Amino acid sequence: MFETDSHEANLLARASLDHCVKCTICETQCPVMAVTPAFSGPKYVGPQAERYRHGLSVDHSLDYCSSCGTCTLVCPQGVKIAELNSVARAAMKKDHMPLRDRIISRTTLMGTFGDPVAPIANAVLGFAPARWAVEQVVGIHRDAAMPTFRTQTFTSWWKKHTSPTPTRGKVVYFHGCAGQYFEVETSIKAVEVLERLGFEVLVPKQGCCGLAAQSNGLFDTARDWVTKLSHQLGVEPGTPIVAASASCVGMLKHEAREIMGVEDPALIDVGTRIRDLCEFLLELSEAGELNLDFHPIEMTVPYHAPCQLKGQGMGKPAIDVLRLIPGLTVIDAQATCCGIAGTYGLKKEKYAVGQAVGKPLFDKVKEVNPELAVCDTETCRWQIAKSTGATVVHPIWLIHKSIFGE
Amino acid sequence: MTDTIVIGGGLAGLAAAIRLAQAGQSVTLLQYGVGGLQLGQGTVDVLGYAPELVSDPFAGLDAYVGGHKGHPYSLFSPDEIKASVDWFAGLLPDLLVPGDGQNHRVPTALGAMRPTYIVQSSMHVPADVTSVAIVGLRQLKDFYPKMCAENLAKTSGWATSPYWLDFPARAGGVDSTATSYATDLDDPDTLARFAAALKKAIGNEDAVGLPAILGLRNPQVWSVLAEAVGKPVFEIHLGPPGIPGMRLTHELTQEALRLGVRVILGSKVIGFESEGGRISGVLHQQAGRDKVYKADNFVYAGGGFESGSLAMDSYGVVTETLFGLPLAMGQGDSGPLPSHEDLITGDYWADQGLFLAGLAVDSAMKPLDGKTAVYDNLHVAGGILAGAIRWSEKSGDGIAIASAVRAADAILDAQSAKQPRNEGKE
Fold first, then answer.
1. ipTM of the complex
2. How many helices (H) and strands (E) in chain A?
3. Testing the interface with B: which of A28, A285, A321 to mutate, by most B Cβ within 10 A?
């Protein structure tokens, strides 16, 4: 057998590389290649370079791949280009993983230490000399978007919360790290809408999905976390699992398996049961079971579908759900990527690339509604907010407002 | 509720989706990857060679079809084909220029003159041009002005002169793609610098031919450049990534989205459900699970062998891979296919019989088993239709558009027959 995480161990993705017909469609859609010559593009570093990687890393420009997954999404031949690149990058970084990449992938740890001292932590992150020092020492760009720490976590709200009497089945709510520590309001609104629909919401103790660790090439850590989480979320057999973080949903649905080869039965079970929040609401709507009264919101908002949502190959459910709100006009920004790609756009050497990748989106947001934009994933929201000045919310904010009128 | 699901985002799928949405239907388009349409030339062929060069693709069509039993064009009158491609050109009036009954002839990168019916406005060469500057870029792969110019001198009747322009797409670029140039020229400042350099590089020819790099999203690039150099400018298509193909794909997709078509990219349709001779839903292989999409009607525009809708296995058995539909060698044929020894010949350039294989359909584009439609609400369009070797006669785009329009109209006709207007009853 091959060494874990070696290029050769990546059999699933490697099996697809002979399907590459060199058509260049991935190159034409790659948002990084479009803005920098530092990245030689998904076709070169993916199916082409992979043939020459006999245990060696042959093309270091691969580190500029943001793992947005656009190449795999647009490939008409089914080549797992982004997956090949993610594995190759993990193998390349294995022996010299930057300290920074170890820190920024520990999202739970950040929240655990930051939230109890939220005002101080937020002040430090907003203090230019401190950010300069962080850039020098750790390598996180001084202008990169940072989350805001909250004084109350989602689970502390949940413990005090009184649920209405359920009128239909159960759902398990997966809040994710951001929904626990930084985007607490999003989790609360999601739970309130699910309860208004009559569901009994269950919130089992849960950890991190490991996505940030995976995208930084820390596969051992990511495998441990995603496996542990799958066992935590899978407690109620057959029950739908719902989450408001589209990228963590993608990790559980397919990325952990396709990129890191995790075959734990708990992950496979959870991966078939988990739904992105808007995907779940759309399914109810299609079945005629979305028994909600939508009140009008007279507004036009731009919407950005995150890469890891698009990568699930189910279209853009948020647009279909938001269009149920009378008076609301949703403009699909149709941008490829916001440029943050998880933690990519934070890094000092990639910050400018990330900003250039996101520019068409930022321009679109400013054009359509400079006050408010909508997006399903946290890091993308922080990136868009920081780069445009707009408030950027999860679609559930508008759905919640339309139903509860607040 | 979705009225119609279209499978495939190439020329046929997009045309059918747009036609249905124009009539007010709710349409979902399921697309596995970005379609091969962007790998094409961004033009629309109707009939280019029969096998001799065709000037009027409609006038000779009856005779051509008469000599090619089972050709997909036998399902349409020449007038209907013309009406369909003209409708298509009218979707993007700023981008597309139909040939007014005659094929255009546009230069290729190798210096041949290619016949095609609809060109993009940036490719059109005015009729009064007699001398042409052919300009290559030092940093751009795949375009050699001397070869192109020398061959064009033999094929076009123009006096041609080759020039090299030293203009990196990006600072330090030595091996740039057409995509880099096109996106950079979208920027007005870069375009102005390019125009100044171009003007200085060329002589007093009537017109300028450039590789197809003249802007991806900014439709003004070509006309701004022509104005700046003071003479007509035209683009010459390159191999993939081809800018005109990308432009056509983008604009058509935008038109579909504008009309409310829901486009779902990235997952494959892998199965279906049927009930009482009708398709009730298709199975879509998304991350984590397979989802059923239900609709009243289905248009299957998944392409041919190159897209995997038709496949030949290692035993030489040819199948249609999604619905398992019966195969034929042409329209009016009821199969079965000849053996693989007869479908493939050892002569690479000979007409390979394999490319005739596909589906035979009725007048509503419903695939047939013998003389009976296999499913009452399944219609097909495009490259999957049996009976034409599209690449040698240059007919693939016309077949795709005519069959997409017919499939969409058949669905709309059946819909209005089912819901008669209550005229005169009130």
1. 0.93
2. 24, 8
3. A28
